Amino acid sequence: MGTKNTVKKESGNYTAWFVKNVCAAVVAGIFIFKCLDTQEGYKWVYHSMLKGNMELIKAHPKATLEERNKFKLGTDYEYLLFVKNATPEDAVILYPSREDFLPEGVNSPFKQDIQNKLWALRFLYPRKLVLPSEMETNRYADDITHVAIVNGRGYERLGYEADERMEFGILPLNR
């Protein structure tokens, strides 16, 4: 008889445990879906970023990550890829300011994300970036090895007169 009671007791414990976990999962699910509908950041991640990425993957299933980034990010990604390939991993780059990337009155090929230093570091790591506004405060300001040129701007930051001017590029700080 004692065995039947033990089995019933264990079965009752399991059922209670199962019901509690199902209830917790339902509450967590409601909370997550409520957050997706009310929080702008979550809305953007789910409705724009995740769905957009999935559509791109479905449209180009055999594309490499690099090709998908080019489709999605365009000139921003191509420029960062160029900078990455043209500089050594230990480079410290004087990175253009927002005004250099998106000058007023000029039809720049760049979008807004590229001017964000943290966003650019995601692609350029382990290289380090220094913004012109950080020249007094950034600990890497004295170690700059390269200057990024965008929209024909940045030559004034070089330690020499460039022989040839280009619209976009990356040049060593000193010859």
**SS field, number of helical segments:** 6
The domain tally reads 2
| Proportion in β-strands | 5-15%
Biggest sheet character: 4 strands, mixed
The strand count comes to 4
Straight-line N-to-C gap: 92 Å
Q: Please state how the strands of the largest beta sheet are arranged side by side.
A: 2-1-3-4
**Helicity level, as a percent range?**
40-55%
Provide the residue-averaged pLDDT: 85
Low-confidence stretches: none
Order of helices and strands: HHHHEHHEEE
Structural class call reads alpha/beta
Name the shape in a single word. elongated
> Taking Cα atoms only, what radius of gyration do you get, to the nearest Å?
26 Å
Label this structure with key terms.
175 residues; 51% helix; elongated; alpha/beta; four-stranded mixed β-sheet; 2 domains
Could you give a quick summary of the protein structure above?
The chain has 175 residues and is α/β, with parallel strands linked by helices.
Model description:
By secondary structure, the chain is of the alpha/beta class. It folds into two domains: 2-62; 74-172, no CATH class. It is 51% helix and 8% strand. The protein has helices spanning 2-38, 40-59, 65-73, 75-86, 98-101, 117-124; strands spanning 92-94, 128-130, 146-149, 169-172. Strands 2-1-3-4 form a four-stranded mixed sheet, with helices on one face. The mean pLDDT is 85.
Annotate the secondary structure layout.
Blueprint: H1 2-38, H2 40-59, H3 65-73, H4 75-86, E1 92-94, H5 98-101, H6 117-124, E2 128-130, E3 146-149, E4 169-172
Parallel strand pairs: 1-2, 1-3
Antiparallel strand pairs: 3-4
Helix pairs in contact: 1-2
